[in-house]
Amino acid sequence: MLRRSSSVVTFVAGFLFDLVTMQRIDAWLDLAFQLGYLASLTALLVYQHREVRGRWTPSGLTARWWRYSVEILHFFYGGLLSAYVVLYFRSSTSSRPAVFLVLLVGVMVINEVPRARGAGYRLRVGLYAFCVLSFLTYFIPIIVGSIDAWVFLLSLLLSGAIVWQVTRWLEPGPDRVAERRSMSAPAAGVLVFIGALYVLRLIPPVPLSVQFQGIYHDVRRDSRGYTLVYPDPPAWALWRHDSRPFERRAGDRLHYFVRVFAPSGFRHRVVIRWDVFDPARRVWATTDRILVDVVGGRADGFRGSAVKSNFMPGQWRVTAETEDGRALATLTFLVEEDTATGERLWSTISA
Description:
By secondary structure, the chain is of the alpha+beta class. The chain has 9 helices and 11 strands.
């Protein structure tokens, strides 16, 4: 009971440590920590397995802390999985990638279920494969400066190669190839499943992320930056800092402003898609698609806007997404006719 409680405590400690220390997704110190966690997990998996099979016995200084190896293992898992939850959550506000986020949280919970932890090394190798691919899915794009499909395929193949090598280090029995295949089968299933999620566009487009977005009556740009204009909110809605719901008068234009973070050296096209809801057919109909070239490296994100002049009252949706259709952020809002004729009062914020 005490050992189980200490595993939970160290797992939560790893989670909290990552939440406090996490910076930009391309922060090399954070990436170094994550690489260190993965290397440590690899060593622990290998030597714990060798110890169980009687092929290795800790000695000297190693023997003193080895009795805590299970707790240390879960600390590293907690640190990695919490990092993935934070980074993937930041990458998309759309509902579709929530499937992958739920999977991440589910893996964190499963890792702490005693019965699952006792399922043997096949499950451990599967969890290890999940951690490796989740890391490489954004680490490789940071290195090459792209999130094209071939980059994800490279991450997938490299993850498979790493897992296959680890099964070799586990020192299987006499029938080495058959045992390695059996041990890596759950890992292969994990990699195939995540590949399917990618094809279905259910994986957030890391390392891109939307830092800020909003709907405005005007977006003004000068040498100092952007000024966003929206109606003065009523006294009971001081939290409003954009034009939702959009009160339309003749001559008004819809402005969507967004800040997209991308790592240094990163270039990618983001699509701004405008949709209007058709109540008769109960479907969203796309009216415009605007391409925005995003250049990475700015800590506050790449700033851009899209303008729409022809629009009708109703329910609207604007989505910032990658060219292959993976959503970064979505805003749903109402456009209503403003029948008032008095002068409108405006508020502004800088962005």
